[in-house]
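Researcher: First entry.
Model:
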Amino acid sequence: MSYVDSTQAGVLASTATYVYSKEFDDKFQTWLANALGCFPIHVKPMFREFETAISTNVLNVFFEFYQIEFTGTPYDVEETDDHLDQAYEGTAHCRVKLIGENSREKAFLLHDLIYLSQNVDALQKFGLSINEAQIIEIDQLAEGHARTPMSTVDLTLDYSYVRRWSIKSIVSAPTSIQNS
């Protein structure tokens, strides 16, 4: 399928900043590793890596954005002769599962750190801000005969992004004058 600008029939071409993607996951992964003071290699998106072996002597962190609710309709941010930028806003829900060494302590740290803006400023660079954190589970993961400490934190985040549509203004549309 090829995308077009508004001077042709078809689906409009667009680009988006901060839209949910692998790059978005990578940025959140880096922020989460820094916030919890652990190695980024031990922080992974749940749907990609949960089946990998879990090391019980380090903190393993898995996260998943499991729901994004949009609020209202998109609104125009900028309109030029070449494009229209529209902003989309909503709420993203993210589950963070911490398994292994210090997982309970780190769950409380994740809950507590969101209340200081310096701790979450980096999230705003890719369209997120945290408005709530709840520790929903403090448990143990059974692995054979061993039991590994595990905690789960649900984050509620404000989420926004901008999509640029290839919409030409009426001024830049091709015209022709017909003689009758």
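Researcher: Second entry.
Model:
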Amino acid sequence: MLRLNGYGREGPMIVRHLRRIADRAVWSWAGWVHVWRTEGSLHQWIWANVVSAALAFALPLSGAERAVLLMGGILVLAFECLNTAIERVVDDISTEKRDRARQAKDAGSAAVSVAGIAVGVAWVVILVSRFALGGG
């Protein structure tokens, strides 16, 4: 494509990049809405995040400690979205029972669980270091 001074057929490069960002936001929102509507486990993780965030701000934690806890909770939500994506692709390929399909779904579920455990471990480490060991 011929460009003169950063302009192409679709206008200035910045406009094209902004359009791409907007498209990705729309697609991401559609994915989030799908997971929200179809996966009850996402609702459970959101409630866990609400409680976790409330405690993170109610307790005398450092900004870094809060950031780790909040980021961990958000990552659990991201893993839940990925797990749903894996489930949809596996089901789209075939609805018949197959060992590899079950293994793929179980691995996606395990990823969500491991992320949740990681947040739990972060909570334990922060609480023990801050309160039981007299830190902070």
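Model: Note on the second entry: The helical segments are 13-38, 40-58, 63-93, 99-132.
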